Write the structure tokens for this entry.
Amino acid sequence: MKDLIEYIAKALVDHPEDVQVNEIAGEQTSVIELKVAKDDLGKVIGRQGRTARAMRTILSAASTKLKKRSVLEILE
Amino acid sequence: MKTVTSESVEFEGKTVERALEAARRHFGLSDDQMEIEILTKGSTGIFGLGGRKARIKVVPKAAPQTESKVSAPAPDKSPPEKKLQDTDRASASLEGKTPEISSPSEVTATEAPKHAVVSEKFANETPDREKVLQKAMEVAKNLFEKTGLDCRTEIKTGPEGPFLDINGPDISIVIGREGQTLSAFEYIINRITAREIEGSRGITVDAQGYREKRNQSLASLAQRMAIKAKKTGKSVALSPMGARERRIIHISLRNFSGVKTRSVGDGRERKVIITPLNRRYRNRKRTPGRKQGA
């Protein structure tokens, strides 16, 4: 899951070296924290949060396969 | 077939405005630097298929104008739909390699006036469509590998041009509820591709004909609800949908007499309302929609 978000985020931002992804695994739900450079924040959120929503949708699709839940948090 | 060094170039697009846009991009000129003649205004057929395209003829003002319509017959007179299939795919790649050929300085008077039909779909595209497809495919493959979903991606060609088709055991997860996941994949794939290849246009991502089926079921839903609206004399509100799906509804009811459609609501809550056109409701105040159509 972490790799997935990392791949998407790195492909979308101007400063891929500043992308940091942490996975906090829980019993059922794991939280994925995404941190990007300040001026790249808009790129991972997108207009009206569209990119962020798409990433969350894909993340939950991938989690469904593993019968788990994942939550994406974008950190400022 | 397509000679770009010509005085007058024909452009086509869904609307006159779209065609104009293509012309502007093609020549790198603004509206008042070009002589524009509208050939046909175009109309959209059902499901966006079978519609006529808007066609305009453009002559850059720098070049001396010749009435090329009379003096030089268009080299290709087959209907635009068909042309899109054979001519333009080849010319799209040509365009990617030599974008500067069409700059106004090269449009010289010595050239015999020739017609070139440039489809809006491909004229917009400086990058090679094949390249964009390959890139999108690569992105899709990486993405699916990382999601751990078991599916394959391949390039297919449909009536509206090439698209990515996804197939495999995990197809239902890829599509998601009402195609939401598929749309998310499509969006992300296109975003990433657009970053790598500048100016690439969106590539449709379909899964085992899901979109086509969905369009058909939307159209039949629209018909059923329109009949209901007419019979009961009451407006029927459909469930909230995305722009693409609302468009299908509007288009499929465009020629359905006795009802009209409009979209109301904002953002994710935006939905289509089918209103019967009978006396009972004629004086009713309408809820203002954001805009007409999709």
